[in-house]
Write a structure and sequence with these properties.
Keywords: ATP-binding, Nucleotide-binding. The chain is of the alpha+beta class and 483 residues long. The chain folds into 3 domains: 201 residues, Heat Shock Protein 90 (2-Layer Sandwich); 128 residues, 2-Layer Sandwich (Ribosomal Protein S5, domain 2); 126 residues, no CATH class. The strands form 3 sheets. It has an 8-stranded mixed β-sheet with strand order 5-4-3-6-2-1-7-8. The structure holds adenosine-5'-diphosphate (ADP) and magnesium ion.
């Protein structure tokens, strides 16, 4: 007869093996804040210190009793099949632990609920040396000595989560610069993924006591944004309603200076057109069409907000990080219809302006636009020089600048050029010297603050009509940047 033997996993090996599941620093922090939001927090304070090397998240949510805290520290503290509260952003009962250890080796949690104060620590070095799933439970004195504990005691209930021992970040030569950069990215990420909470003032997030702003991917405050009529689609397997709201967003030209700045910050195509999928109003996936339609230049202005509840996570195959999902088969056709309709709208906006007909994929100084049987030439406002100038200008100067561009555009001496061409006279082209071009490129590049954005810009210059042939020069600048 067979017998049963309990095989307890090796704690340290198992935890270590799960550390690289694909969280980034910013998605990991967002996962911790998801817990605060699920605990009905209205204020979340993020504190960090690159000297003492900690990140701390303090919330005024409903907190945990000692028993609940220990349960929360457990891997798999809740089952996927547990019924969740309507606003709960959790999923597997793993986020707190896995998000933390994806970034560091020590997790401290202190919580207050109904005058009961409790605290516990997971430290991967302790787990390793004890060779067991041992969590350290803190006594009152140890709790009192925790960073920012006095801030927590000012609240009726709430929780502190502290991350320490950043082994991965510390491998980098310049920890401080790296830490600061990572936190900047985190702020941008939170401004976007929680933007609806922030916008509706249901949540305040601060970074070292400074309130962070929201980033609205639909620019709903801009009068040029066109919200389309909302749709509801019915998910037939679970009989759940899903709200869909398409937006046609304005052209770059019609964005305010603040909005353009925002776009610039999210340069990695982060605010691209596409679906914007929210789970319990928290943005989880965005900026692509999920293979529902072919990406199309004409869909460039369409963004579609989709609201899903937390009761059908399994259908969307939502992962631990809540960043990966698959559109359920039962919804694809309905969604495709809505998208096609809004792309049609986006298309109309474009057609109205005519269609760009350039010879190749280069960014030209002038775009040649065909509309019906007519042709016109327009200055290409995607030109990096124009873009940067626009970002640096105040709104009033920017209007002047645009007026100047318009004037140049409308008063191209076309007849005169036609006459000269016809009369066999050679039109002299002024060739800029390499030194001049070098200066011009450096002027552009030095306007960028981070090395990363400098590189991105330099790369985009390779595809511009003006600089594409200057390969040697671009290569030289590239190697200078890498030094
Ligand atoms: N900030 C917090 N406030 C109150 N409870 C919390 C907080 N963070 C975590 N918890 C509790 O710990 C549990 C485990 O969290 P987590 O590991 O992130 O899993 P999940 O969010 O999927 O439930 C949560 O379900 C919640 O009960
Ligand atoms: Mg969670």
């Amino acid at each position: 007869m067979s017998s049963y033997y309990e095989l307890i996993p090796d704690a340290s090996n198992l935890i270590e093996s799960q550390r690289s599941v694909g969280y980034t620093f910013e998605t990991a922090i967002a996962d911790i804040i998801d817990n605060s939001v699920s605990a009905l927090a209205e204020k979340v304070d993020v504190f960090f210190d690159n000297q003492q090397k900690y990140v701390l998240i303090l919330d005024d949510g409903y907190g945990m009793s000692k028993k609940e805290l220990l349960q929360a520290m457990r891997y798999g503290s809740k089952s996927v099949s547990d019924v969740r509260a309507k606003g709960d952003l959790g999923r597997f009962g793993l986020g707190l632990k896995m998000a933390t250890f994806s970034q560091c080796r020590k997790l401290t949690v202190i919580s207050i609920k109904e005058d009961e104060v409790s605290g516990a620590i997971w430290d991967l070095d302790v787990v390793k040396s004890n060779m067991a799933w041992t969590v350290q439970v803190l006594d009152d004195k140890e709790i009192e000595n925790t960073i920012k504990f006095d801030e927590l005691t000012k609240l009726k209930s709430g929780t502190i989560v502290i991350w320490e021992k950043f082994d991965k970040l510390e491998q980098h030569a310049n920890f401080m610069a790296n830490f600061d950069e990572v936190l900047e990215r985190t702020e941008d990420h939170l401004s976007l993924v929680f933007h609806r909470y922030l916008q509706e003032k249901k949540l305040i997030i601060t970074f070292n006591d400074r309130e962070i702003d929201f980033v609205d991917p639909f620019f709903t405050d801009n009068k040029a944004t066109q919200p389309k009529s909302p749709d509801v689609i019915l998910e037939s397997i679970r009989n759940v309603k899903i709200d869909v709201k398409p937006y046609i967003i304005p052209y770059q030209k019609r964005l305010t200076q603040k909005e353009r700045h925002m776009l610039k910050k999210y340069e990695h195509n982060q605010l691209s057109p596409g679906l914007y999928i929210y789970r319990n109003r928290r943005l989880i996936a965005w900026g692509k069409w999920f293979k529902l339609v072919r990406p199309n230049e004409l869909a460039n202005l369409a963004k579609i907000q989709i609201d899903i509840p937390n009761t059908i996570d399994d259908l969307w195959e939502i992962d631990v990080k809540k960043s990966q999902l698959v559109i359920p088969r039962s919804l694809r056709t309905q969604l495709r219809n809505i998208i096609t309709k809004s792309i049609g709208e986006s298309e109309k906006v474009y057609k109205h302006r005519g269609i760009k007909r350039n010879k190749d994929n280069l960014q030209y100084v002038f775009n040649r636009i065909e509309k019906e049987s007519k042709v016109s030439y327009h200055l290409n406002i995607e030109n990096p020089l124009i873009k940067q100038l626009q970002d640096n200008l105040q709104d009033s100067d920017n209007r002047l600048f645009l007026a100047l561009l318009k004037q140049i555009e409308e008063h191209l001496p076309i007849e005169s050029i036609q006459y000269d061409m016809a009369s066999d006279r050679e039109i002299e082209k002024q060739n800029e010297s390499d030194d001049k071009v070098y200066e011009e490129i450096m002027l552009l590049i030095n306007n960028q603050t981070s090395k990363e954005s400098k590189k991105l810009l330099l790369n985009s210059l390779k595809y511009s009509e003006v600089y594409s042939k200057k390969t040697a020069l671009l290569a030289r600048i590239e190697s200078e940047l890498n030094d």
